[in-house]
Design goal:
331 residues, alpha/beta, four-stranded mixed beta sheet, 10 helices
Length: 331
Amino acid sequence: ALASIGHYDIENYIVRGKASTSQNSSTALNENIMDSAAFFALETHLNNICLKSSFTPLELKRLNISDNDTLKVIEKCAAESVYHRKYTSYQWNDEFDINKLYSPTLAPYRGIGIAFGYEGIGYAKSHLTAKKLSVEVRFEKNNDIQIYLPPVDLEQEDFIKQTLSRKLDLSKNQIKMNFLAESSLDSGAPELQDSTASIIASLVCKCAETYQRKKTHSYPETIKKSVILSQNKNYFFAKSNAAACVELEIDPCTFREQLRGIWVTVTCGEIIDKESARKTIVLCVEKILSSLLTNEIIKKPKINISFVENKSPPVQVESIAWQIIPSAFAQ
């Protein structure tokens, strides 16, 4: 339901859900698939409104989004992809050549689409808050740090260590993990485990900030933080926002698609390793393209990744592209 609304200031809306049974084997319910479908439907619907009005997709987004941080992401993506110039040019060409649709001498049809989405972690009414996920960080006098937390895998452990080491300017060797043998948190599916790791990293950062604000210390000093969500519109513990522009060309004879360029702008808090985050997003985009263009031989387009950084705790970006690339591609 939240993905169906997005970041738009919608006064009246109805969200209906339907679940059907079948004789197939049972499978896990992947939240990312539902979110991606909801964002796709929302962004495509907004684009259809633009086609029947005098608004451009970017103008319609400006009129219906009041959050400045969200608009920064969309504006940066549009500016870096030269969206303003190309959208107007392509729209004019489409109107001018509409009667020559099947002409073999016609130049390829080109278009550019823009879409926005987000990925939230730690939904207010999920198991993460119901079980009251918390971490403890103990600071030793010799600058060693002990972290007591629910079990995570090796990759997530390295992510948490890297986050804290950068925060306190320490070596990762000085940080020790102590996993709770009987955790009340059941991580469940892999996507929930990724959410758990991002939340733990955020809580560990908050522990470090509390430690740094203190003027005097009594060692060993233990600081504990838990998931706390306000009762306003902050439905998630943390979010990563993203916008994407996709420029597409269609041959008038074969009607085969050719990608001319992809631009993705992401804000995911404080970035620990920008190059690693960039590679993760590019890999996700390539995986999406392989599903959108099945049985097609396509020239790999240049994928441009940019970030809008802030001082918020870092959030992982493994699947954020699923929320934006399909809808930008379809426009």
